[in-house]
Structure formats: structure tokens, C-alpha cells
Amino acid sequence: MTAQALVQVLASGLLMGLIYALIAVGLSLIFGLMDVVNFAHGEFLMLAMYATFGLVLVTRLDPVVLMPLVAALLFVLGAAAYLGVVRFAMRAKANQGMVQIFATFGLAILLQGAAQYLFTPDYRNVPNSWLGGRTLDLGGIFLPWPQIFGALVSLAAFGGLHLLMSRTDFGRALKATREDQGAVALVGIDRNRVFALGWGLGAALVGLAGAVLAIFYYIHPQVGASFALIAYVTVALGGFGSVAGALVAGIIVGLVEALTAVILPPALKSVGVYALYLAVVFVRPQGLFGRL
Amino acid sequence: MSETPVTEPLLRIDHVTLRFGGLVANADVSLAVPEGQILGLLGPNGAGKSTLFNLISGTYRPSEGRIVFRGEDITDLSAPERCRRGIARTFQVPRSFDSMNVLENVVVGGFARHATAAAARRVALETLDFAGLGHRADAVAGELTPPEKRRLEVARALATEPTLLLLDEVLTGLTPSEAKAGVELIRKVAARGVTVIMVEHVMEVVMPLVDRAVVLHLGRVLAEGHPTEVVRHDGVITAYLGERHRAA
Amino acid sequence: MTAATTPLAPALARAEASHAARRRRKLIVAALVFAGLAALPYGLRDVYLQNVLILTLMYAALAQSWNILGGYCGQVSLGHALYFGAGAYATTVLFVTYGVLPWFGMLAGGLLSAAVALLLGYPCFRLAGHYFSIATIVIAEIGLLLVHNWDFVGGAMGIQWPFNPDSWWTLQFARDKVPYIHFAIAFLALVWFVTWLIEGSRWGYWWRAVKDDAQAAESLGVEVFRSKMAAAAVSAFFTAIGGGFYAAYVSYIDPESVMSFRFSLLFALPAVLGGIGTLWGPLVGAAILIPLTEISRSYLGGGGKGLDLMLYGILVMVVALARPEGVLSLFRPRKARAEEATP
């Protein structure tokens, strides 16, 4: 393999890794807030892609422009999922862990069915977008513009998230709630409200990822499942609940996947990622940046 | 082995230190517990009583020092292995198996020494009766009243047929009459030849019960001796009794 | 404890006797239920309904297998498709390639799966809660990807069973599906009986203790890690037997049709729906879930509209939220439920 080919692989892996980080961070945020794994996370991504697709058809605007609107829609979906489903799952007195898993799985199946009902199981893609199909030529290294854009959105989102967590009252409430749920009630923070907003925020982040992904990836009702597994691996690798961990782990996952695709048949590109994840959690169950 | 069984205590804790990161939970603690005694382990909150229990029962491994039980170094044994050698414990906050009924909870203890269900159940039934919970055998563990839960903890531990029983605040939070019933149960246990170490806050209840008292403070042994001597110890009075007497 | 020869107090003797009677009664009820099921196919000639019955019985048995690890021992595996696939592939490859009868193939698949479960359990059981569940999903997915790219077992193409005359030897019945119903009942009865046996044994008590409170269990002499390993091995063994049966029944397998994630979910759901860690929960759950999904797929699923999926998803959510202890808990004594309702 030439040096140039290696740089090509690493650059593509890095861009995809940043997008993986953006897909995963919402999941990690929600887990850090309330110890719940959202097994419908992939379906949130899938719906964001369909939302982008649908809005493009209706408004004739470009996905880049529609991105904030998609994020806002997903915010509503996330908050509604918490208020309508997860809130009740957390009240279960028996088998709480299992109730959370299966309640969010049920939601995932419902959303998949709804997508199939509304959009049919056919493969869709967003036609004629500004970035779709264009590549940047950096002296023989070709980088697709949609991925570059996605990586930039991801970096901006992580920057914004950092500011939000450190500079705003909402961020401080989020932090306080994740530190000590009992204590926040005493200082007058409405736990339910923080949780609902946290779910909204987590979903809005995966909404951004969906809008980006819709530019260069085909859309179908099961598309979320494949990305969801990568997202769980990313979050577990980085450490559940850690935002910085999601970023670092996302980049690692992107790079490992790109390198695996060079060594193994492309169909096995995820195997390298999964193997790395298992190797890490078997040695360090809490992930790279997680607390136990 | 050079130990002679006559002088060797049942349990010997030898210069045991436990650190969590930079935090020292137990510092150079040494204790010897002769067979047949009821030992009171006293001290204010955070004195290291519960961590010492966890060290003896095998939940934690000491950073330094060793623990010898019946002449055998058990420092590196797992909790279940220690249980089979005769160490049983209760937990400060009762931790019943809530998907099971009372009898089944105790049967789990019975399986520590008996492989067959019939034998384990028999031990469990006898133990339940002995602990005064026979009438609640069919109740779901989660439905018990707090004093009943404490009793279940003791019964479950007793079903493992221990030679050393560690009781973590089994009398705390009970009404005077419940506490009195609890004291009677502990006396009954000791009368069967089981050595007892009990962690307790309520001095008044413990003092007449125990043969010897050890006061821990900030992870160290502060005083040790006959209960009547210990309460007169200057350091104990300032470190512990001054505040605790009022609280109790 | 005092000499074990002294007679028990009368009240305790009564408790012991009633316990033995309860255990016996469960066995009698089971014998009646399974005998009744065995008579069912003779009044059921419709091929479609026979298929639904076979699937229901099979998933009941598989859910009971999952229940051993997930329900009794509390380790929520979402990767049991791996063992199901291992059973299906072992049976198929041994039969199609080497001419080994499916009966032995299933046994081999079961033993293989149990060995794999022990091997994977070693690192996995260090993980707790969600961490464990996610690791099991990922491991099953690795298995799926590897089989997909393994030409010896047919790769993505899969393997077709050869056509043979109907026979109990080869477990192939092209004309009449009734033998499959009987096999599925026998399989279900076997898993049920093994679970019943274990429930009354040391392992059964240990598993439940591990699920409820592992640390308290350890202090009572419970070998927590060994308990999880034993549960995983037994659970994987029976899941693989089910895989072998399924392969014989559908007579064609490929990676997606026996190893995809939806199977892992389908093994867990009936147990969760009916009541985890119970003898009858998986059967009750499967009897509700499988006919409902199969029938809704036939009537609502036309053209891939997704209505059947929506119904299924809603059902799963409602069950998880409304009856976290499963449908069976509805039949528990009233007093227990009243106290459960008060916080």
C-alpha cells in the first residue's frame, strides 16, 4: 500500500469517524443523564433521514438548509419518547433494567413499522443536493464533500455541546442531575423536565447526523439498525455517559473500520470495530473514559 | 503449622490496611477474636466498621496485612470460600432476595454446606424456626416489616452454619421491645457456640450483651477491652460517646 | 446446626409437605398440558394454523431456554441468535455434507453452543447490566458476519436440505406437518422438565440469588461466576437444539434466516411477556405473542405496509410498561398484588 493510499484510507476513516461520533453522542448523553440505554436510537436516526428526505420533497430546499428543522423535529420526538414511554419504564419496581430495554425496543419496532407504513420499504435517496456526489481533490486524495460537511457539523455540534454544558443553566442542570438525582430535587430542579430536555437534546444531535447521512446514504426503514450497533459500540468504547469519550471513540471506530476494509473483505469491515470493542471492554469494562 | 489450637484465636486480623485510591478506610488494624465470644465493634460513622466486615467476609481484599481464620490464612479466599469455611454475615441495609419467599431466602444459605435440596431445606426450616420466623416462611421477602427483614438476614446467615457470625447493625432502628427480642436471638446464637462480632451504634443495648468491645475511630483501633472499661476510656468518650449518646 | 435427625416441628413439617405437594402438582399439570397439546394437531388440519402452532411451541421452548439465563439468573442476553444459528448450522452441515442424522447433529450443535457459551461467558460475565446485553448483541453480530463470509457453510447463499421421503430418522416431513408438532411439544416438555428440575435444585436457588443480589449471594456461599456460566451453558445448549429443529423444519438456512438479531429478541420477548424466571411464563408469552404476530403479519403485513410491525411494537411496549412482571403475575394471590401496588 502506498503512502498516499494509506492517507486516503485514514482521511476517509476520520471523516466517517466524526460522523459516527455525532450519531453516538446523543445516546451517551442520555445514558449519562439517567442510566437508560435507548434501544430506539437507530430508529431516531432513520426517522431523521426520512424527515430530511420528506422535507426536501416538499420544500425543494437543500438538506444543508433543512438541517436545523430536522434537528428541531427530532428534539420533539426525543422529548415525546421520554414523556410517553421512558418515564413510565423508570417507574417499574420490578425488573427495571429489563423493562427499559424492552420498552425502548418496542418503540424501535413501532417506529420501524411506522416508517414502512408511511414511506414503504423501498430504498430512497435525496436527489440533486448541493453536496451529493461531489468530491474534493487534495493532491490525489479524494474526499467526498458530504462527509467533509458531516465531519464539520459533528465538530461544531461537539463544540456547541461543550459550551451548552459549561455555560448555560440548562447545561448545569443536566450536569447536576447526572451527578446526583436526589439532590437536584432538593434545589428545585424538576427532574422530569431535565430528563425530557435531555432526551430532546440527545435526539436533536442524532437528527443532525441523520440530515447529514441522508445526503450520501440510502434511506430505508431498517437503516437505523446497522448504525445503531456502531453507535452502541462507540458509546461503550468511549465509556457510557462520556461526551468526550464518544468523540474519541467515534474517531477510533471510523479509522479501525476503514483500515479493516483494507485488510478483510469489505463485507467484514465492521468485524474489526466489534473485535476492538470487545477487546477494550473485556480489559476495561467501563470503556476508555467511563466511570463505573 | 506451628499454631497450637488452644492459644490460636478463631479469627486474627493482622495489621490490615485498606485503601481506596488515596482514602484509607482501615489503617493497620489488628484484632484477635477468641472462640465463643460476642465482640462489639463500635465507632462513629465512617470509623471503618463496615469495611472491616467486608474485609473479613471477603467482599474486599486488604491492601496490606492478613486475615487468619481457624489457623488458616484466608486473605486471598473469595467470599463464598470464606462462607464455606464458616464465616457468615448480615448487611447493614437488609439485602433480601426479593423474588423469593422467606423460606427460599434461607434455603440459599442452607446450600452453602448441603448439596441436596432436601438437606438445605431442612436446615433452612430449622433455622427459620430458631430465628422466630417460621410463621412467615411463605411470605414474599419484599413484604416483610423492617425488624422481620433483619431477622431474615440473621436466619439466612445462620443457615450457612457458621462458626463466626458478623452482624452489621442488626439492632439499629428497632423499637426497644424489638431490640430486646433481637438481643435474645443473639444470645441464643452465641449459646450454640457461634462466635459473634457485632457492629452497633446503640451502646446501651450492646454493652450488656458483649464480652468485649473494640472501638474504631478513623479506621484505627482506638480502644479495646471489657465494655465497662471501654466506656471510661478518655479518647472514646470524646471521639464517640459525646456525640453518640445524645443521638441515641 | 443441631442434629438433623430430630423431628421437625409440626408447622415446619407441614410447610415441607406442602412444598413437596406443590412441586408434584406442577409436574402433574405439566403432564396434562403437554398431553393435551399433543392431541391438538388431530383436530387441526389447516396447514397455516399448524405452522403457527409449531412456531408457537418452538418459541415457547426457546424462550424457556433463554429464561434459564435471562430470567432465572438475570443475565439479559440479546445474542442468543448465535446459539440458535450454531445449532441450525451444525445440524445442517453435519447432515447435508456428512450424512449425520439430525438427531446427532442437534446434540453436537448443543454441545458446541454450550462450549461457546462458556468460552464467551468468561469475559462477558465481568460486564454488568446494559454492558453485558450490548456485548452479547455485538458477539452475535460478529458470528453472523463470519458465517456470511464462510464458504464452507454456504456463505450468504445458505444451505438447502436435500429432498428425502418423510422419516423420523431424518426429521423430514414434506407431506404431513404433524410430526413436527409432536417434536416441538417433546422439545418444549424437555426444556420445561429440565427447568423444573433445576428450579428445585441448588443451581436454581443460586441463579435466583445471583439475579436478586449478587453480593449478598456471595456472602452466603453462592459461586456467582460459576452460576452464570452454568446457566449460560444450559441455556445455549437448548437454544441450539431449537436451531437444529428449525433448520429441519424449514429445510433451508442462510445466515439471515437463523442468526439475525430479531431471533435474539424473539427468544427473550415471550419470557418477558409471560413472566421471567417462571416455569410457565415463556409458554404463556409465546402463546400470546407468536400467534398474534404471525396472524397480524398475514392480515396486515401484505405489501410490507408495516402495520403488523407497529402492532408488534406497541404490544411489546405495553407489556413491558404495564406488567413488568409478566402476564403470569396477574394470577398471583391478591394480597401480594395489593402490596405491590402501594409504593
Automatic annotation (TrEMBL), chain A:
It is found in: Cell membrane. One of its GO terms (cellular component) is plasma membrane. Keywords: Amino-acid transport, Cell membrane, Membrane, Transmembrane, Transmembrane helix, Transport. InterPro entries: ABC_transp_permease, BCAA_transport_permease. GO terms for biological process: amino acid transport. The keyword Ligase does not apply. The chain crosses the membrane at residues 6-32, 44-61, 67-89, 101-119, 139-165, 194-219, 225-256, 263-283. One of its GO terms (molecular function) is transmembrane transporter activity. CDD domains: TM_PBP1_LivH_like. The keyword Transmembrane helix applies. It is a multi-pass membrane protein. It comes from the Bacteria. Belongs to the binding-protein-dependent transport system permease family. LivHM subfamily. This is Amino acid ABC transporter permease.
UniProtKB/TrEMBL annotation, chain C:
The keyword Transmembrane helix applies. InterPro entries: ABC_transp_permease (IPR001851), LivM-like (IPR043428). It is a multi-pass membrane protein. Pfam families: BPD_transp_2 (PF02653). It comes from the Bacteria. CDD domains: TM_PBP1_LivM_like. It is found in: Cell membrane. The keyword Metal-binding does not apply. One of its GO terms (molecular function) is branched-chain amino acid transmembrane transporter activity. The chain crosses the membrane at residues 27-44, 51-69, 81-98, 103-122, 128-147, 180-198, 229-253, 265-290, 310-331. Keywords: Cell membrane, Membrane, Transmembrane, Transmembrane helix. GO terms for cellular component: plasma membrane. PANTHER family: HIGH-AFFINITY BRANCHED-CHAIN AMINO ACID TRANSPORT PROTEIN BRAE, HIGH-AFFINITY BRANCHED-CHAIN AMINO ACID TRANSPORT SYSTEM PERMEASE. This is Amino acid ABC transporter permease. It comes from Methylobacterium aquaticum.
